[in-house]
Amino acid sequence: MMKPTPSLIIVPTYNEAENLEPLVSAILALDAGFEILVVDDNSPDGTGKIAERLAEAMPVVHVLHRPGKMGLGTAYVQGFRWALQRDYQYIFQMDCDFSHHPCYLPIHLERIATTDVVIGSRYVPGGGTVNWGWLRQFVSASGNFFARTMLGLHVQDCTGGFRCYRREVIQRIPWDKVRLQGYGFLIGTIYQVQRLGYTITEFPIVFEDRRTGQSKMSFRIMVEAFFYVMGTALARLLAHYRDDRIASKGKIPL
Known about the structure:
about 15% strand, about 45% helix, 8 helices, seven-stranded mixed beta sheet
């Protein structure tokens, strides 16, 4: 039997004590050769200790401990760098709260064979959300529309965090240009992926509201994402204007 391609799932955690062990069990029950890296931000509820216990019992579970709550973006970047120091060819990111259900992981593996990045998407036909209020639906849908329009993105779910990347994509993204703490990081990453010319595939998922614990979404995170999109869009506009001026100066008048 052919050995599965080494795959790592990065799971950032902050106060996910009730979710972590069931999630790890559900992932490993798929028996698809996944390894898991938990990046814990010194959770007060003991999530880091649970992660350590799981890592001691199962060699395919790994843990990175951070000194405090440092944000989603930096957790993923640290996890990506850890993965690149090892032999993982496919690198996943997913939430710990079962809003990204492990049952979709095999679809990611199937699709990544023919593309560079795979996104489990709420906003392609067949996708959706469960147990969301109208305000959260409006904020999410309008935020995605805003990012797509301003940045010229070809992805429907720009803020979707259920993704799989080929190793070479992670290696080439200029992470110094995606220094964002919250969900703006997800927009910035997919913008860089598209700018580099990599292929992106979406498939539908149903995003369920978290089973336990509290959402990490905040007003500060939304403001950060807004200013990132506006700043990047303005920089793109100025770059196009500069290129047009240079091109026009190079034309020979008839």
